[in-house]
Amino acid sequence: MINEFSVGDTVRLISGGPLMTVNEYNDEKDLVDCIWFNMDEILCTGTFKGAVVMIDVDDFDFDDFDFDEEEDDEEWEEELDEEEEK
Fold this sequence. Notes:
The protein is of the alpha+beta class.
């Protein structure tokens, strides 16, 4: 099955990676030309086969996740202590 992409769609590689925007889609060759900013805020481009790209799900909600780093550090330290005891 060939996916259909439109200019402006937000996509990701199926294997993960940054959120990208479809810049152009060649439906005859099933090629998706994407643009995105890397971690250094540099504009990047790449062309991918449609089979390795998926439309980004818009229902991602940051409120569903706990980003309390201090709590995460404590849990990590407890796991390390447990491993050392074994």
